[in-house]
Specification:
335 residues, mainly alpha
Length: 335
């Protein structure tokens, strides 16, 4: 028995009957020889961590565009916080931590530069629309590895696709990530908004604080404990009605006072217009796309608009700005 088989045997002994066992995975679209050390979900996690799209997350906006300071969240730090929360919940519920972590680390791989502002801009100009969770699937199925994708398991891809609010993941691990995403961004966005003098802790209505807590630490503890206590030995991931209501209403509060706050979002109009201008330019100059996207058009029959959308969605904030300057800002003449 090799190390992977030992790990699979241990999963059968200690994990919940509702957990997704590695040995029962529905597998990959392209069959591969099993690793003798890592389980199938461990390999997925490692592939995500080592892919280019994951590294680019460190230079993509979470909420605040180009904040001045080292302590504001980026799309990468958000992803890591989601993974930490999700693993804590999965461990307490005896679910498959490796599957949970793989889904969490991959859930935002398809996010655009400038966060939801970039997503909105591409959704407006692309004839087929744009959703970051669908783009995350494109990243892992098509765009990484020169058009070959990462060949992840069906369970990981299902969790990534269904992490949105209206999603319905097929595994409990995916359900955990779906809730952990909200827990993470609500709380770290409050923290960043306070740091940026957008709101203060006292601005949060007592009807939410009295249920969830009046600090980030207390809120996280309340939300995680509530999920664990209400989901133990059950076939779905649940929250108590009181805590879930408070969390979702706090989310609405954040949309009203932070996510649409003029001070926090003052540069979004510029970012959206820049993304739209880049899209229009590359639609007229397909030959200027990087070779990997030209390959998808010429060799794989992918549509030009799809390739332009893929290219722009993969850009980091700073790279998109530099490309815009390169295309539209005149350079000083030298002789």
């Amino acid at each position: 028995m090799n190390i992977r088989e030992q790990s699979e045997a241990i999963e059968k002994q200690i994990l919940s009957p509702y957990a997704a066992l590695s040995c029962n995975s529905q597998g990959r679209d392209r069959e591969e020889e099993q690793c003798d050390m890592r389980t199938i979900y461990q390999r997925d996690r490692d592939r995500i961590i080592h892919c280019k799209a994951f590294r680019r997350l460190k230079h993509k906006t979470q909420v605040f565009l180009a904040p001045q300071g080292d302590h504001y969240r980026t799309r990468l730090t958000h992803t890591l916080e989601v993974a930490q929360i999700a693993r804590s919940i999965s461990k307490a519920l005896r679910l498959n931590e490796d599957l949970t972590e793989a889904i969490a680390l991959g859930h935002d791989l398809g996010h655009t530069p400038f966060g939801h502002a970039g997503e909105d801009a591409l959704n407006q100009v692309c004839s087929f629309g744009f959703k970051h969770y669908e783009q995350s699937i494109r990243v892992v199925e098509v765009l990484e590895n020169a058009g070959e994708g990462l060949n992840l398991t069906k369970e990981v891809r299902d969790g990534i696709l269904n992490h949105k609010t209206s999603g319905n993941p097929s595994t409990l691990e995916g359900q955990v990530v779906r809730l952990s995403d909200k827990i993470a961004y609500i709380n770290h966005d409050i923290d960043d908004a306070i740091r940026g003098h957008i709101i203060t802790e006292d601005d949060i209505p007592d009807k939410y604080s009295s249920v969830l807590g009046d600090t980030t630490k207390k809120r996280l503890d309340t939300l995680i404990r509530d999920i664990v206590m209400n989901s133990k030995e059950k076939s779905e991931i649940l929250m108590s009605e009181e805590v879930e209501k408070a969390m979702m209403e706090l989310r609405v509060f954040m949309f009203e006072y932070v996510y649409t706050n003029p001070k926090a979002k003052a540069e979004e109009i510029k970012a959206k217009e820049m993304i739209k201008q880049l899209f229009g330019y590359y639609m007229k100059h397909i030959d200027e796309l990087p070779n990997e996207f030209i390959y998808l058009i010429n060799e794989r029959g992918q549509g030009e608009e799809r390739s332009v959308c893929d290219y722009i969605a993969g850009m980091s904030d700073q790279y998109s700005v530099e490309k815009f300057k390169e295309i539209y800002v005149p350079k000083a003449w030298k002789f």
